[in-house]
Fold:
Amino acid sequence: MKILFEIPGDPVAQGRPRAGKSFTGKTVLYDPTKSRDFKSYVRLVAAQHAPAKLIEGPIHFNVDFYRSVPKKFQTKPKLELIEKGLLLPTTKPDVDNYIKGVKDGLNKVMWHDDSQVVSLNVRKFYSMTPRVVVHITYLEGD
Structure:
């Protein structure tokens, strides 16, 4: 089975956990607001494409991140290179920080746990229409 959908808008990389104090004085770690909001957004969009039952078995996961084109690249020659896929983002954030937020957002929506992902293909591009394209392939359960 295959599930393919787009998450419109600029992708957000998973931020570093923040430390704070609880009411009892214990140190607690929490997600930065931007990361937490992005995961909620991923859940919301993914819920519209989710299978009737959570995916049980192994999952092949392909994700393409399309980032906004920086102002310095918004010239005709640069946009042509971007269009052909020859000018790619080699700056931070890393693809592994991008994918963390999406995988966490899909837990309990598409699958039980992201440990079910057995293969992962992540790419990042520039685009005038920023988005995240998610492609999940899995074997249908009984």
